[in-house]
Amino acid sequence: MDVELDGKIVTAHCPNSGSMKSLIEEGNVVYLTKSDNPNRKLKYTAEIMQLKDGTLACINTQLPNYLVEEGIRKGKIKEISGDIRREVKYGEENSRIDLLINDNIFVEVKNVTLAETNLPSVAQFPDAKTTRGAKHLRELSKEAKKGNKAYNFYVVNRTDCKTFKIAEHIDPDYEKESLTAAKAGVKILVYNTRIEIKDNNVLIEIDKRLDQYK
Predict the structure, then answer these.
(1) Per-residue pLDDT of the chain (214 residues; tens, 9 = 90+)
(2) Disulfide-capable partner of 137 in 23, 110, 152, 177 (CB 3.0 to 4.6 Å)?
């Protein structure tokens, strides 16, 4: 991602494999972190975007796993509790579960930053076709059928959304897998985040549960 910094253009690493639809627009503000690692090719990482209306969106897709883990440990996520392990191998399709709790609660975490102009306060996922996301739903379905608890956890990581829905117009196959997973017993959890920036200090944390769009 090319960003203007102190009058110069720098190329920053963008830890996001999605399209970032509804976010990429010239003139938006990008908040960067800088690495002092001499072996890194790109010294800067794009972390947060500020849209022209003031909306903040966290574009680092590596962060939500930590936010959910912290939220569970602090008791902010009432539906889940227990001992947590991260990135545990499981399933039949060479998968790793984002969070495994007490060896029987499987939690797959997704970062959500899409909100389109026709539904401006509705967060949507995915923002591009995702065969990987569909695979995760299949794996969760199998665990639910075994009697384990399985959650697809959507972290709405932008500050202007009040509800959530699957973006079936972007990836109808993902929607079908979501419906199949729900029938198998996979639960959907949706929480938003609180994002605050003050004096170059950033606070991002799990905030409250959101309803699904109807």
Answers:
(1) 899 999 999 999 999 989 999 998 888 999 999 999 999 999 999 999 999 999 999 999 999 999 999 999 999 999 999 999 999 999 999 999 999 999 999 999 999 999 999 999 999 999 999 999 999 999 999 999 999 999 999 999 999 999 999 999 999 999 999 999 999 999 999 999 999 998 878 999 999 999 999 8
(2) 177
Write the single-letter amino acid at 194.
R
Do 50 and 72 lie in one domain? The reply is no
Asked if 86 and 98 touch (Cβ cutoff 8 Å), the reply is yes
Contacts of 77 (CB under 8 A, 6+ apart): 68, 71, 189, 191, 206
Assess whether 77 and 33 both reside in one domain: no
Same domain as 185, residue 132: yes
Which CA distances in Å does 140 have to 42, 55, 68, 83? 36, 33, 17, 19
The one-letter amino acid at 69: E
